[in-house]
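Cysteine--tRNA ligase, cytoplasmic
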Amino acid sequence: MAGSSTEQAPDYRAILGISDEAARVRALDAHLSTRSYVRGFALSQADVDAFRQLSGPPADPQLFHVARWFRHMAAILGGPPATGPPCGLQATGRGRRAQPAWSPPAGSEPCQLRLYNSLTRRKDVFVPQDGRRVTWYCCGPTVYDASHMGHARSYISFDILRRVLRDYFKFDVFYCMNITDIDDKIIKRARQNYLFERYRGTQPQAAQLLEDVRAALQPFSAKLQETTDPDKRQMLERLQCAVVQAAEPLEGALRAGLAGQELDVRVQALLEEAKDVLSDWLDSLHGSEVTDNSIFSELPKFWEAEFHKDMEALNVLPPDVLTRVSEYVPEIVDFVQKIVDNGYGYASNGSVYFDTVKFANSEGHSYGKLVPEAVGDQKALHEGEGDLSVSAERLSEKRSPSDFALWKASKPGEPSWPCPWGKGRPGWHIECSAMAGTLLGASMDIHGGGFDLRFPHHDNELAQSEAYFENDCWVRYFLHTGHLTIAGCKMSKSLKNFITIKDALRKHSARQLRLAFLMHSWKDTLDYSANTMESALQYERLLNEFFLNVKDLLRAPVEVAAQFEKWEDEETELNKSFYKKKAAVHQALCDNIDTRTVLEEMRALVGQCNLYMAARKAARRRPHRVLLESIAHYLTHMLKIFGAIEEESSLGFPIGRAGTSLNLESTVMPYLQVLSEFREGVRRIAREHRVPEVLQLSDALRDDVLPELGVRLEDHEGLPTVVKLVDRDTLLREKEEKKRAEEEKRRKKEEAARKRQEQEDIVRP
């Protein structure tokens, strides 16, 4: 084999191709007899392959060339050949060892993010159209009244989804939301508010007010008789009853000849109760006289500001861009014109309608993508058109009952803008299409809204937008949040069965509300009830106690090197569980962002940590701080992603007033630790000298004084006192619950003693 391996390759190929080993050895011996394999030997891949094919040195002494070559190769490669097929090059030309062949691990297929898409009614793999960039349009509120928990259902849920896409899956999300500030509801409410305040300003006399209320109740009663919806009918009956009951004291006061303040109080009470009834009546009489456009803009401006305050209080991220209908009227006019030019819209008596029949029959288009079974539902279509747009005259302007308004000719008492078809205002559905189309173009990744908007609003949006862009893919993924019920009952602003966000925040914190939402699927119905909130409170307490215990562990002084203790079986098992839980959390988030399962996995992880810490405490051993700190940081990170931790907090829930730069915990904890150690020393001396009064004072400090300051001390026999900063209201509630439990225990003890005494009295002769 003197010379290059390239020269020997042809001979070796023939030798390596011989299947019989004895014949192969003889051929190799003949080949080696013509080569020097000791001096100037240059090892080749062919030598290695031939050597690997041999099971050992030849037994025939006549094959001495192979025998000498074999010993030489074995010395270079470090041992006898391994059986099996030829392997890769194992040695260099200088006879040194080389790295063995490496094979990558098989690994596992990573799970893909899937989202429930209303367009397909299944979970589809989420694939943005432009790399990691995600364009998202969300239907915003119609601002004519206070924001309620139905709004919170949508906007907290979408805030969670947005944060997960952005902060967990690392998508670049561009989030656009609209404010509907031109709408039939706004027009009617603004007009009624204006007319009622003008009426109140006239300071009607008691007799005149009663006469007007009776007049207003006549059309109201007729409306009540025509109402077939049982929920709406019940609401109207309650309203009528309240007005009648409020009128009776005023009627009695007039009969009794009362005057002055006594009469004024009754007048004001009736005005408040009859506001809705009087407003409807006044609007029917004088609504067409309201022509000042500022009247229609002041109401939505006020309620939009209140909406933003509510969203900030709920820790909902603001949109990247906010659009208002009133600011996009020129774009809406252009959008409508192009739909007409494309042949899918038609003008009729100053209004413009979308031709649903022509669109549905056009190649490449389909109407009713989201809820095809609802196409033709006249009740739903009328609700979509608005109370001011469903008169017999308006309905007669349409070619088909399913057609809907793109542009509405304004009637007296309605705001208006100039356009090619005469003065008018935008239809409801066209607003979102024009604004989203202007900012996001011909196709967006995600469109979101409440479940009740699917038909007709979102189906009409899809139709008119695809008619404008002449495509079939305006929205790739349609996400709809589930309904919200209140203690099992349907929530409805029109039925006056709703809870405002401000009212909800008076009872529970934004974090507690968000945890309640996280504990339910974003696309399913959520029941806002005492049971739902109690579950959220319990979950918050569980996490908070864990964070407080870990913080107490981390505050214990320890040398830098000493914190890295040897892991025993308990730590190894807890760590394995930790990584399993993280994998389960990831799978759940990939599965339609299933936060309910995520929270259950986090709860289970905290439970395992608590068992581990309890076992360590029972054995008088401190838990492993580095492992628990790692788990606590992970849980904190996930809660931040979900928006359940509002402030900057390195570990656990922040303590102190939101929005302040002061880190209350790091500021006061050193002093509380000194106080705790001093108290522990005093207790030790008191026990040694048997001074119960001092022990009682120490207990009073723990049970009565410090809880008022939001500080909890936990005494454990044989272990240092645990110091925890907790929300003051939580501590006071715990104190009250403990007091009630002790009273109940005492009551049961007294009851048992009384029964024993009665039994003894019966037995005693």
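thats it. The two ends are 122 Å apart (CA to CA). Residues 1-10, 83-93 have pLDDT under 50 and may be disordered. bye
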